[in-house]
Amino acid sequence: MINLKKILFENISHKQTILKNTFWLGAAEFLSKGMYLLVFIWLANHFGPRVYGQWNFALSFVSFFAVFVEFGFKIFTIQEIARNKEKSSELLNNILAIKAILGFFVILFSYIISRFLTGDEDVLRLILLLSAYIVIDNLAVFVQAIFRAYEKMELEAFSRILQSFLLFLLCAFFIFGGGSIVIISYAFIFSSFAGFMVSFLILNYLFPVFSAKISVRTWKSLFLKVWPFLFSGIFYMLYYETSSIMLGLFSTMENVGYFNAAYNLFIAVFVIPEIITMSFFPKLSFSYSENKKDFKRQFDFFKKTMFVTGLLVTVFLFAASGLVMKIYSDKYSESISILKVLSLIIIFKFLSHAYTWFLVSADEQKKNFKIQGVAALLNIMLSFIFIIKFGVMGAAYATVVTELFLLSAYFAFYRLKLYKINLALN
After folding, report:
1. Which of 93, 147, 286, 333 is most buried, by CB atoms within 10 Å?
2. How far apart are CA 227 and CA 222, in angstroms?
3. Same-domain check for residues 208 and 294
């Protein structure tokens, strides 16, 4: 007789643990990100392209500064704790203290810089509130991710789903109450704070790792270890947020709204590789340091899974772009062609995602930094040229060209690293 409780809540074997973690991360990703997507679609239809464009411009702007709170600590901490649980207390206490300080300066500097970019008071208020949301949400995401190092993804799933459900309820309350888009920001702040507190309390109850003990002396060594993650994150956010910011600066807020109506759906499908990656990453990271042959075997399966799922999603989203965009009002008809263009590169993005995490698992973060740095600069340049020449479609064209470059670069570094691993094994 199958004991479903043991299968879903205990780590029994290697394969069962991967399946269990995949199930819970899948539930968390689909339900939490699905809830966020519903909220964004609701905001788009309720407020219209211009106000929705203001919202996305502000969110994209503050999201760039979020990397200075993240600083690469999440991936680094998962790796370190997965390899040595005894480091948990020292790492978590010091990193949370660092994040709190960085968060204060992120809110301050993002608001100061925004004053030089726009005089729109609504956008400025959105930037101030959303910067607070980004900082608090980053703390929540960091604490939730620690459950992965202990391979207790069911606990991460619970806290993330609870946070997203609360966000949906608060947004519904404010929208039905006639709240403005600025008021909606408070729903994001309150729900992220609740997600942080719930995750913090659960983690500390089951794995007592938090205390008031911090050591400023360890901060320097931490920064030296995570700086490649930081710069990789900066380039990552530059790449993903450039289009919205460029459209806001050199086009119209309506075009920001049109682009993001399609782009949010495009991004939503990447819940699939994220689920697969988060399930495999602790095992990949461990096997690289312990058993290179097992590492190669696991990555080959990981890569094939990415290719097949990426191909299926590409075909579906391209063929059904018009149908998918029906979830928006007729005001967003211009977004259909944008989604069609973006859908063509999904399979390439899935494969790039696989090669990215191959390099991360193999302690090659600096190579990720170089690739993403060049890609970010390329995307900024192409977005500037294409948006001026083609308008909102230019943002989509710039994304396509940049993704093709990313896949080529990641594949080249992957082959080089694989060659070195094979030499070491032989």
Report:
1. 147
2. 9
3. no
What letter does residue 128 receive in the DSSP assignment?
Answer: H
Say whether both 88 and 166 belong to one domain: yes
**What is the structure's pLDDT at 4?**
67
The pLDDT of residue 8: 67
Q: Give the domain extent around 96.
A: 13-214
Is 222 within the bounds of a domain?
no
pLDDT tens sequence across 230-270 = 776 777 777 778 888 899 888 889 999 999 999 988 888 88
Q: Last residue of a domain, which of 196, 214, 232?
A: 214
Stated pTM of the model: 0.81
Rounded Cα distance between 312 and 103, Å, is 40
CA atoms within 13 A on the CB side of 279: 29
- Asked whether the predicted pLDDT for residue 292 surpasses 80, the reply is no
Both 208 and 248 in one domain: the answer is: no
- According to DSSP, residue 212 is labeled S
How many helices, marked H, and strands, marked E, lie in the chain? 17, 0
Domain count, the chain: 2
* Residue 133 resides in a domain: yes
Query: Which residue, 172, 194, 214, sits at the end of a domain?
Result: 214
Q: Tens digit of pLDDT for each residue in 149-195?
A: 777 888 888 899 999 999 999 999 999 999 999 999 999 999 999 99
Residue 148, C-beta contacts closer than 8 angstroms, at least 6 positions apart: 21, 78, 82, 156, 278, 281, 282
Does residue 320 surpass a pLDDT of 80? yes
In this structure, what DSSP letter does residue 207 have? S
Token digits of residue 205: 């109850």
